[in-house]
Structure formats: structure tokens, C-alpha cells
Amino acid sequence: MSQSLTVVVPCYNEENTIKQLITRVLEQEVVRELIVIDDASTDNSLKLIKEFRDKRLVYLENSVNLGKGASVKKGFEKATSEYILVQDADLEYSPEEYQRLLEPLESGYADVVFGSRFLTYGSRRALYFWHRVGNDFLTLLSNMFTNIDLTDMETCYKVMRTDIAKQIDIRENRFGLEPELTAKLAKMKLRIYEVGISYRGRTYLEGKKVTWKDGISAIRCIIKYNVFK
């Protein structure tokens, strides 16, 4: 098992989870580089990030809050490993599954891997019904434009070769990142695979940030990045 992965973590006000998340990421043997981008957090997130003394950890700071997409763009630009993965800072997704996600890439039959929360694999917390309906709708709409049969377009876990990531000009600053990446990857005619993952979603009381407004934005992004260049 070689160290071949850069993990990009956008972080905004995640003081309750960021320390554990970084610890778990650095425990994975495949991780060569961890880039954490603090998006002008107003809590203790940045202080906790700076406490780590691992040579694999690189932290960047946004002077103002720019959003997930803008932070991921910075991470993509800095990455140096063979493969790259986006990891949210909230522990909804498990770093222990990195090797499973990398397997299709390292075996040479995939260029991109989506980690699907809806393919049968591990445990998945049962949460908001209407979120699932919205997710299914957005995935269906995206699939209609891309003609790629995904089960979870909105997943955070999108793993790809780093040379591919560096070709993508990310324009969306917030959660429109997911449909934008999907559309642009589809246009590149890449070999895209899905791997089932576990999922431990949060409630809004626990800090979940995505709202219905992000769903409306996702529809806009699906149309924008699939119909227009």
C-alpha cells in the first residue's frame, strides 16, 4: 500500500470535529498529503488545526469566508500526490474507506471514483426524507444531462487523478461545486466508477449546513455547466 493520496479538507466552524477528522485522516497509510483550508472560521477550528505537527499536513487560510468550492479550488492547486480526494470536516464520511475508493483507480480501470451513500455497503444513518428526495432528483437531473448513471451525484467523496483535478477550473464558491465537478468530469469523457460508502449524516442541530437554497443553486449549476461551456 503506497502513499499516493492528497486529501483536501475545506473547514468552516468545525471545532467539534476537525481535530478527530485530521487524526483519522493521518492514520490512513495511503495519505501522503493533507491540505486543510480554513475558510475564515469564527470558532477555534484554525487553532486546533495549527496544533498538529505532522509533516504531511498543510494548512491554508482564507482571510474572508469564500465557501467550500473556493476552498477546494485552493486545495486542488496545491496538491502534489497521484490521486486527490475531497473530505468534509464534519465526520459524515469515513476516512477509513479511502483504500476502497482508490482501488478502481490503482487497478487502472477508472479515472474518477464517486463514493455513493446509496449503494449497498455499510451503515447509513436514516435522516431527512425530503433531503433524500431532493438528492435523488438532483442526481436524476444531472444524469439526464450527462448520460452517466450515477446514484449519488451530490456525494462529497469524488476521487480522481490529480492531473485531472488540475484541469478543472472551479467556478462555484459554495455547494454548487458538486454538480459543477460532475458536469465537467462528464465532458472530459472519463471512466467514472461508483463505490458504496457508509454515511453518518448530521442533523441541523449537530451542525449540518446545506439548506434548500443550495438545492436550488444545484439545479442552476446542473443546467449551467452541462448546457453552456
Detailed description of the structure:
The protein is an alpha/beta fold and 229 residues long. It has a single domain, classed as Spore Coat Polysaccharide Biosynthesis Protein SpsA, Chain A (Alpha-Beta Complex), CATH 3.90.550.10. The chain is 37% helix and 17% strand. It has 8 helices and 7 strands, in the order βαβαβαβαβαβααβα. It has a 7-stranded mixed β-sheet, with helices on both faces. Helix 2 links the parallel strand 2 and strand 3. Helix 5 packs parallel to helix 8 and helix 7 packs parallel to helix 8. The longest helix has 18 residues. The protein is globular. The chain starts with a strand and ends with a helix. The model has no long low-confidence stretch (mean pLDDT 89).
Tell me the structural class: alpha/beta
Say which CATH homologous superfamily is assigned. Spore Coat Polysaccharide Biosynthesis Protein SpsA, Chain A
Radius of gyration: 16 Å
- One letter per element, helices H and strands E, the order comes to EHEHEHEHEHEHHEH
- Percent of residues in helices comes to 25-40%
Query: How many strands, which pairing sense, and closed or not: the largest β-sheet?
Result: 7 strands, mixed
CATH architecture heading: Alpha-Beta Complex
Number of helices: 8
Secondary-structure topology with pairs:
Blueprint: E1 5-11, H1 18-26, E2 31-38, H2 45-50, E3 57-61, H3 68-78, E4 83-86, H4 98-106, E5 112-116, H5 129-146, E6 158-161, H6 162-165, H7 177-187, E7 192-196, H8 212-227
Parallel strand pairs: 1-2, 1-4, 2-3, 5-7
Antiparallel strand pairs: 4-6, 5-6
Helix pairs in contact: 5-8, 7-8
